[in-house]
Amino acid sequence: MIKMNGDAGHPRATGELLKIRRASLAAIILALGTAGIARAETTPVGVPDKSFPESVTSTSDGTLYVGSFNLGGVTKISGGKAEQLVKPGAGDSRSTLGVLADEKSGTLYVCSNDISGFGVAGPSDVKGAWLKTFDLKSGAPKGSFALSDPKSLCNDIVVGADGTAYVSDSFTPIVYSLKPGGTALATFATDPQLAPAKDGVGLDGIAIGADGNLYVTTFVPAKLFKIEIKDGKAGAVTELKPSRPLDHADALRAHGGGLLLIEGNGKLDKVTVNGSEATIDTIKDGLAEPVSVTQIGDVGWVAEGKLSYVIGDNKGKDPGPFKLTPVALPK
After folding, report:
1. For residue 247, is pLDDT > 70?
2. Are 140 and 188 in contact (CB under 8 A)?
3. Rounded to an integer, what distance in angstroms lies between the CA atom of residue 233 and that of residue 244?
4. Which pTM value belongs to this model?
5. What tens digit of pLDDT does each residue of 166-195 get?
6. 178: which strand partners?
7. Model pLDDT for residues 75-132, shown as the tens digit of each residue
8. d(CA 33, CA 12)
9. Where do the DSSP E strands lie in 87-194?
10. Is the peptide bond before 173 cis (omega within 30 degrees of 0)?
11. Residue-wise over 196-218: b if at least 16 C-beta within 10 A, else e?
12. What value does the mean pLDDT of the chain take?
């Protein structure tokens, strides 16, 4: 304890001590905070039982949003607690595939589909493929936009800097767009290269790269494409040559100067594009039938969909618990 005896040196010493104490306290708080973040980053987050997630998205505060392939709706997960944000069937929605949170407009974009042809009834009897929009905070329905082709399957969404949403269609060679305030989807890009192969699945993941161009995957056969964007319009479509073969190329997300890619055979990859070539570096392997990824800070949260237990070889077997798995991302 330092006494205040009027000596000119003591007030200075007291001030210096206060500075040291404050600095020490700040360091302790920072250390505790960092430790808390580290714990959160290494702990998987549970997803509602038997919900078969197909896509996951997030907001800057760390909140996660995950859809359900079989049950429909969207679950919000914050602080490790899950709550139903969009109820199954809300806004005439059905089975939920791609989900995307756009904080700028306060909108949650959702791909809703009738997948009864796969043996999955979903929560309603609405036919067709739709892009649905909901309020990001309340989950209230905002809009509904049909994909034009009867064969369409709305798979995933990305939103550009100008607020335009782009939507991939797995069963036609079409990428749709929806401008802010738009009342209907428009065909943004179409190309024979993007068409699904016989008995295959076409367009799947979709992202906007650091170069401002659109990137898409096709699921089976697994391919990666660049769609140039010039003055808001689609330009050349180029198939990229991967550094190694891809297996069931699924979700795609922007990551720094590159992309994050999910491969259905259990991998989360980093993709670096140089011209017409794409270097594929595996970040993590051994994931349980991954379907999507979203980035929060330096962590990628991977949704393990286990869809083979609802539409594949394992149908009828117990898939066990569902979770979102955190994976440290490279700088």
Report:
1. yes
2. no
3. 31
4. 0.87
5. 999 999 999 999 999 999 999 999 999 999
6. 165
7. 999 998 999 999 999 999 999 999 999 999 999 999 999 999 999 999 999 999 999 9
8. 31
9. 95-102, 107-113, 129-135, 141-146, 154-159, 165-169, 174-178, 186-190
10. no
11. beeeebbbbbbbbbeeebbbbbb
12. 89
Half-sphere exposure (Cβ direction) of 51: Cα atoms closer than 13 Å: 28
Query: What are the two backbone dihedrals, phi and then psi, of residue 71, each rounded to the nearest 5 degrees?
Result: -90, -25
Residue 129: partners with Cβ closer than 8 Å, 6 or more residues away = 111, 112, 113, 114, 146, 147, 152, 153, 154, 169
Q: How many residues does the chain have?
A: 331
- Amino acid letter, residue 17: L
Closest by CA to 226, choosing from 257, 194, 201, 250, is 194
> What order do you get walking across the sheet with 277-284 strand by strand?
241-242, 277-284, 267-274, 258-263, 249-255
Pairing between strand 64-67 and 74-78? antiparallel
Residue 150 identity (one-letter amino acid): P
The model's confidence at residue 42, banded by pLDDT at 50, 70 and 90, is low
